[in-house]
Amino acid sequence: MDYRPLLAQxxxxxxxxxxxxxxxAQIAGLDPYVCKASYVCGVMRxxxxxxxxxxxxxxxxxxxxxxxDATELxxxxxxxxxxTDGSTEVLRTGVRYLEGHADPQARPLPHSxxxxxxxxxxxxxxxxxxxxxxxxxxxxxQLLLRHLAYVLNTMWEDPSLSANxxxxxxxxxxxxxxxxxxxxxxxxxxxxxxxSQPADGLEHDYWRYDEAAIxxxxxxxxxxxx
Length: 226
Fold this sequence. Notes:
Layout: H1 4-8, H2 18-28, H3 32-56, H4 60-79, H5 87-100, H6 113-124, H7 139-154, H8 161-167, E1 174-177, E2 180-183, H9 186-192
Antiparallel strand pairs: 1-2
């Protein structure tokens, strides 16, 4: 199934930063809104995959910080936030969106929006101090990633999101591929959506499974013979 129409179903004209996205869209051959949505999808996937890589190796502070980066980006999309101030409230907005659009197959988030702000500050500022009322466990990251994956697949169906995404201050990042200037993520995401949903095929997805369901394949295989 082709999922590219998912990002385009509520296309609106960009209300801010149009020259930046017109440039990226012309290179990618896309509508500017779809180009921006593709970029956002790619950034969220990278944050989640990087968080998952850390999670696999029990680097839980780094994993949590990256998952909360993805959550803050979600909050920026949802709120239409512009400017660099107010990142704490943007993160709270992201957490609240996850709470209101939770994966029905996953347990609720174990912390409130205010507690996730405290955890992000703890992980992002040298682990200086954390309120004794906030418990830090791998659930803090695992459930964030589960709900983020669900929202990454479903938020494009939310018609109230499109105008805010169009306004949010998110600028494309460019690189050079074989001598050609390209916006990162955009072409890869469009290719990915030809066959898969936005959150499908995430690498390092150990977090999708409870530990009890993980099979240890490091031991010698059984042959069935004595």
